[in-house]
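Backbones bend. We report:
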Amino acid sequence: MSDSPHERRRTILRALSPTTVHSVQALSRLTGVSVITIRRDLTELAHEGLVTRVHGGALRAPRRGAARPASMRRRQDVEIKRRLAQATAQLIEDGEAVIIDSGTTCEMVAEQLAGRDIRVLCLSLGAGAAVASVRGAAVTIAGGPVDPESLSLFSAEAVDAVRAFRADVAVLSTCAVSTREGLTVMESDDATVKRAIMASSTRRILPTAPSKITQTNTYRFGRIEDLDALLTTSQIDPDALEELRGAGVDVVLCD
């Protein structure tokens, strides 16, 4: 049995893995404290960016700044991203002006919007190609150099393009979501682009996997209160869901 909260949380961190979910019950047995206490510990560790809360348990969070390659991210949580993309596309009306952020989930949203009567500004070549694959949308790609790994646009030219585009709705991506720290990403250039997207849009939608919720990263670009809708799945930890809704966030479960 752990003697103090600090020691107990160190025990929890040593037990957790980035790839295997450890249940709240298993951690309770390991540390000799109640399930309620373990949930509180996991909430605190998640706010510190050390664990990822999932339904019924937790994972050890990836090291901050250790981004997975885009090719790997495209293969991760594919079915979850597809459901989120379908639900996000249903929130966009024909005739609207839309900004689609970079990121693999946003690329899937772009696929769902192909052929729609909308005007779109895309922050990645992948999203632009996807939404333009069927005639219908008027598609613009933000300017400047292209990141060779993700095919995204983070330059000053991209920021200028976003600021010049007045959007009815923005579809955002993020590395992490926290009621304490807000919306955060790994790179400062990415955060700058996202701040411009937030400022240029009337409505802001964030489709995100449950694994990113209660996490924090390096650069903040907005508050969760700035979102009009956060779309995720029922795999979200119940405590995290309650915390987000308690903060006034419109959380939509896409199952």
Q: What stands out?
A: The domain at 70-253 is CATH 3.40.50.1360 (Rossmann fold).
